[in-house]
Amino acid sequence: MTPRNPDFAADIAASFARQGALATIGAELGAVTAGRCEVRLPITDKVRQQQGFVHGGMVGLIGDVAGGYAAMTMFDPGKDVLTLEYKINFLRPAQGEMLIATGTVVRAGRSVAITRADVEAIAADGTRTLCAILQQSSMPG
């Protein structure tokens, strides 16, 4: 995949820094390459629900962001990203030390990009468990 914006990484980092919700929950921007983006979320009490698992809303949030920014790597310069819709499948409870959402572009058109995000839970011993899969469509905004 060839990005349309040679400065996509800097633009994504700047956009990520403007998201107060991500700062509130402690999410961090990981690796960003053409057609791919990682978002990391340390698992703390801020993001757990009543049973001790990461709340599904937090899992969806970081999956949405990772997929959206993967799509943004394919947009024209000066364009941000807006999610049109997403569907998420929760596979296992999200628990451990960290969540990593990895968004990848499936297809990038001129006005809509389709992405997939895998959300993995990382245990203290480094074991990775796929806990959710998200499919999304995004547009330049």
From TrEMBL:
Reactions performed catalytically: a medium-chain fatty acyl-CoA + H2O = a medium-chain fatty acid + CoA + H(+); a fatty acyl-CoA + H2O = a fatty acid + CoA + H(+); a long-chain fatty acyl-CoA + H2O = a long-chain fatty acid + CoA + H(+)
Q: Give GO terms: molecular function aspect only.
A: hydrolase activity
Pfam families recorded: 4HBT (PF03061)
Sequence ranges assigned to domain Thioesterase in this UniProt record: 51-120
Span-the-membrane segments of this chain are none
Query: Which E.C. number(s) belong to this protein?
Result: 3.1.2.20
The alphabetized UniProt keywords are: Hydrolase
PANTHER family noted in UniProt: 1,4-DIHYDROXY-2-NAPHTHOYL-COA THIOESTERASE 1, MEDIUM_LONG-CHAIN ACYL-COA THIOESTERASE YIGI
Name of the featured protein: Medium/long-chain acyl-CoA thioesterase YigI
What organism, scientifically named, is this protein from?
Answer: Sphingomonas immobilis
